[in-house]
Write a structure and sequence with these properties.
12 helices; 12 strands; binds iron/sulfur cluster; alpha/beta; 41% helix; binds flavin mononucleotide; Alpha-Beta Plaits; eight-stranded mixed sheet; Rossmann fold; 2 domains; metal ion binding; single chain
């Protein structure tokens, strides 16, 4: 039914990359030329002359990551081409019992955007892969990870077979309903993830300054700073995808829980109230007080987080302070996770071809 298939994926720790490779392999086994494209920060679409596209990505905050939303919005008109969407989500396993994640609005939001762009969406699925949110919990052990991944492969293969056979498959309606109820949290996450969570990362004393994290960040969100002893600095464009944390060879990327408390305290200061009180003496702003308050709150938080993180990144170079931060975060104790069969170099390419026995376009 299809001649070619282009799959666009975003992946932090390899789960969505692995899912996309399974889907491309299934297409290839049916004699369908297929290619994978990694969604980078500035990636433009490569979707030319194909009759099926897929978008595969992790769930963040019960919805799709901003990078994927932006990428989908920028796709050219679909003109009736077929499309499918897969959102990987946080599967876990407690005492041999597998527990599902919740993709919320992730899959259907991207499906809706694709429909608006003129694509005919043939399938949507949420797929349990091992949870990678290492700022919150330790990484799953290899046995549990492999258990979840093996189950996921069966589901991904079956989904893809259905789509390639020309049928439709729409999964996760209950998750969508819960996602809609939780949509205020998802909306808040788009800001909190970027401006709060991303500002908790720091490199512990184990960092050698190798720069691998900066080089491999799919968003280019890490800058190496500091002359002959370089250190990673996390900018506001970080999507909290966990790649740097999952793949640092020295397990040096930490997410500071103690600094989270400091940031929370700074964010709670009623600065906008004082500013507005003084402003009202000079400018009549009563009629749009709410608007001014929201705007000031936002600007204040942004600037204060930026300044606080700048101070942290200077202080973190002092070994004693670094130790203090390192030993007051749980991530120091957490096992790191990345998809067990996915090396960092596997995700380096922007484009992968599945129309020949060669796995990667560049060899
Ligand atoms: C910041 C962040 C937020 C997440 N939010 C959710 C969520 O709301 N629901 C869920 O089921 N999984 C959530 N996850 C888990 C990931 O979606 C899941 O582990 C995914 O498979 C990771 O894929 P990747 O390795 O391709 O990045 C979150 C992970 C991170 C890092
Ligand atoms: S945090 Fe890790 S990957 Fe990044 S520079 Fe330091 S050692 Fe290298
Ligand atoms: S800085 Fe780390 S967590 Fe943030 S987007 Fe880059 S690799 Fe992902």
């Amino acid at each position: 039914m299809y001649k070619s298939c282009e799959i666009f994926f975003m992946s932090g720790t390899g789960n969505s990359y692995r899912t996309a490779t399974w889907m491309a392999e299934t297409a290839k086994n049916r004699g369908i030329k297929s290619r994978l494209h990694q969604i980078f920060k500035d990636s433009d679409d490569k979707e030319e002359g194909t009759d099926l596209i897929g978008v595969v990505f992790p769930t963040h905050g019960f919805t799709a990551p901003w990078q994927v939303i932006r990428f989908t919005i920028k796709l050219p008109p679909g003109k009736g081409k077929h499309a499918f969407v897969a959102a990987t989500r946080a599967g876990t396993r407690v005492a041999s019992i597998p527990l599902p994640g919740m993709e919320g609005t992730a899959g259907y939001l991207i499906a809706l955007l694709l429909m608006v762009k003129g694509y005919i969406v043939r399938g949507v699925m949420g797929l349990d892969m091992p949870s990678n949110w290492m700022s919150l919990h330790w990484g799953l052990n290899p046995e549990n990870s492999m258990f979840i991944i093996r189950r996921a492969k069966i589901k991904a293969d079956s989904f893809m077979e259905t789509i390639l056979a020309g049928n439709r498959k729409f999964k996760g309606i209950l998750s969508l309903l819960l996602g809609l109820i939780l949509s205020p949290i998802s909306l808040a996450y788009l800001f909190i993830g970027r401006f709060f969570f991303a500002k908790l990362f720091f490199a512990s004393g184990s960092c050698t300054g190798c720069g691998l994290c900066a080089k491999s960040c799919p968003i280019g969100a890490i800058k190496m700073t500091g002359g002959n002893k370089p250190r990673p600095y996390w900018t506001f464009s970080c999507e909290s995808c966990m790649r740097c944390m999952g793949y640092c060879p020295n397990k040096a990327v930490e997410s500071s829980h103690s600094f989270a408390i400091v940031l929370y305290f700074i964010a709670s200061l009623p600065v906008s109230l004082y500013v507005l009180k003084s402003m009202r003496k000079f400018i009549p702003i009563e009629h749009c007080l709410f608007f001014f308050k929201i705007t000031f709150d936002y600007i204040y938080k942004l600037i204060s987080f930026f300044v606080a993180y700048l101070i942290l990144s200077w202080l973190i170079r002092i070994p004693l302070f670094n130790k203090l931060c390192t030993y007051t975060t749980f991530t120091h104790l957490y096992r790191r996770y990345h998809e067990p069969d996915t090396a960092l170099k596997d995700m380096e390419l922007e484009e992968y071809s599945y129309d020949s026995p060669q796995k990667h376009k560049d060899g």
